[in-house]
Backbone:
């Protein structure tokens, strides 16, 4: 079976679905990948400890965890097939000190289904979403390391966030709005650290990264990166930065690791 990579992607709000440029980038990226047997999503929008796994029944309803958008976004569906085998496999990989709880009804939130609707529009691949149980980079790297064997089983691991996410500090809410200085500063710092495979710098972002705390007044959109890096064969080997640029002034830089 072909080994899958691991990804860190910017997921955007539902209007991403109408952005031809970014949608095209995500769709093209997915077409370049081997077809996954299953997908594990770790989204910024589900923080819960201990580790939680989403419902696995076919066609579990989505979570519409956003407000103020057009009604049609609340009517979208993404009916994925049964994912119980993947959920059982993930649970079996966790140590006794990291119990896993199955959520019987929680579907995919927009950090999962919005990008997947573009990347795999047929919704014919089993998907499990896993909660972020901590904000600590070291613990997330270790969690990613435990999940790494899934890649050899055809599972695509995706950390879904946004490389900058200072929503309270945006002054324009247009897709093509200019990026604020704090967003470009953090983005370029992260791009350099990723290109060098400098995990220590990336993990010390609160102290070392320019643009803080404006780039991440809360950190849940940045920390899924460490799941992805932990799942890499060698976290210090630089990955491929597949998407860059800005959306509403926020960095959509995205990463693929082998």
Residues:
């Amino acid at each position: 079976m072909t080994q899958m990579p691991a990804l860190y992607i910017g997921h955007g709000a539902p209007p991403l679905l109408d952005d031809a440029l970014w949608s095209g980038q995500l769709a093209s990226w997915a077409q370049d990948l081997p077809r996954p047997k299953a997908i594990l999503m770790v989204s910024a929008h589900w923080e819960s400890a201990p580790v939680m796994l989403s419902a696995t029944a076919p066609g579990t309803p989505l979570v519409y965890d956003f407000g103020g958008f057009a009604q049609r976004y609340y009517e979208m569906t993404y009916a994925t097939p049964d994912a119980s085998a993947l959920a059982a496999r993930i649970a079996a990989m966790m140590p006794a000190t990291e119990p896993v709880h199955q959520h019987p009804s929680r579907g995919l939130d927009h950090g999962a289904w919005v990008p997947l609707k573009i990347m795999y529009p047929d919704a014919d691949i089993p998907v499990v979403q896993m909660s972020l149980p901590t904000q600590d980079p070291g613990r997330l790297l270790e969690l990613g390391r435990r999940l790494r064997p899934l890649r050899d089983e055809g599972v695509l691991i995706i950390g879904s966030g946004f490389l900058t996410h200072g929503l309270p500090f945006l002054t324009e809410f247009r897709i093509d709005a200019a990026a604020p200085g704090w967003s470009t500063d953090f983005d370029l710092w992260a791009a350099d650290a990723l290109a060098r495979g400098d995990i220590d710098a990336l993990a010390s972002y609160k102290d070392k990264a320019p643009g803080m705390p404006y780039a991440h007044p809360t950190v849940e959109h940045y920390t899924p990166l460490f799941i992805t890096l932990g799942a890499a064969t060698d976290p210090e080997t630089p990955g491929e930065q597949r998407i860059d640029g800005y959306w509403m002034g926020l960095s959509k830089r995205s990463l693929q690791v082998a």
Summary: The two ends are 15 Å apart (CA to CA). The first helix runs from residue 20 to 32. The chain has a mean pLDDT of 97.
